[in-house]
Amino acid sequence: MARPAVVFKEADPHAPPRSSNKHVSVDPEGNTLIDLEFIEEPLGVTAEQGHGYLRVEFGDALGPDKRYKVVRKLGWGMNASVWMAFDEKEKRYVAIKALKGYSTDLFKRNVTWELPALQRVASIPPPPGVESTHWPQLLDHFIQPGRDRDGEHLCLVTDVLGGDVKSLQIEVAKKKGLPLPLAKRILLHTLRGLAHMHHCNIVHTDLKHDNIMFDAGSADIAVLIEADPPRCHPPEESWECTVQAAVSQPLPLPSFSEAMTRTYVVSDFGCAQPTTLHTFDEITTCGLRAPEVILQGPWDEKVDIWAFGCLIFEFITGSALFEMKPYPEEGLDETTCHLWQMLCWTQDRITREQVEASKLGTQYFDLPDNPDDPFCNLKGRPRIYNSPFWALLKRYNVLEEADVFATAKFMQRSGVIPNCRCLRKGGNEPGSGQHRPSLNSSTLDTDPS
């Protein structure tokens, strides 16, 4: 039987009705190919085929004791769908992240570490000055049987969250930089969450806008559900059946003033790993990857701090710190150009030791001929421009003069500027935290709550 080539398609309310989402063709070798286009998650595509999303109806009761009644779909991602449910025991609304069958199998084989990571951050007291509200609070977990060949679903029960920073930046800032007071609040809360994770010897590895969320505030969820009842998309064809996906209906986004009262949470531990024991090394969104990740060298919790430093820039300017594209004028492909930009912005050097310790080190850097020379040059020897970081921030014209230098200084302490993180030999041991930004930094000293 042919394996389908699955194409994801986000819901488009302006698109004309489709005659079918299933397209059958034959390749030059005579093999039958089935292309499936889904409005949301690819329901009915099996766990063996890399999916196996939870299929559930509104009103269904989940859990061994049928404790959780499904009332709404909040969203979905590459590894799970997230549902709002009513906890019949505690008489409250909760969120249930239901891993797809394929991802649950990875958990069972100890490839992924989300549940142990959530349990660890809950069991270890946070460091002084860090509240327990900046990471998900695991309330319960269970295995939910799946339909047909969907596999089983690891379900993680947490508090309902209000949405993610990516959506907030689109709503509040219209894809531009966030207002500085809000950016500072989000960054401070994010740093507190990371501090506790690293205190627990956990590396998030996937820090980005989408994975920083905020609480639901004082929203009356029952009233919201009544005003905006749960809905389903029209039926669509799947691999061997017809399916009907629920419409993703996250909670309404807050205004700027409301956002300034919310608590921000480092969420989605699906890619979390122990500091020193890694099950996979291809981590972090490309534009936020630390150099040691790109070069496939040894890494630890400092990769989160590098990503955090990049996010400082993105939150404030609304633009990515690094342009992910080739630079043909200098003869650089996309990855080499990424490394080149790092060297230009940081004015740092990559050492012989780092290159020799990395699988891809010599693919991108030339080892020096002189054995006494500790530094390596990027292949092609592009010119390394002296580009002060404050000058880049100033170019966007979104900060006052004093804030430009304060922000550049804080990014330096976050590791995106030299002498601060692990670009140089002699970085800290995992868990030491000596290069981490201070939680009391005046740069982020906004509402401490």
Automatic annotation (TrEMBL):
Show the segment(s) annotated as Disordered: 1-27, 427-449
| Residue ranges constituting the Protein kinase domain according to the UniProt record | 68-449
Per the UniProt record, which EC number(s) apply here? 2.7.11.1
Q: Which SMART domains did the record assign?
A: S_TKc
Top-level EC class as recorded in UniProt: transferase
Q: Which family does it belong to?
A: Belongs to the protein kinase superfamily.
- Example GO molecular function: ATP binding
Q: Which residues are listed for ATP binding in this entry?
A: 97
The molecule here is called non-specific serine/threonine protein kinase
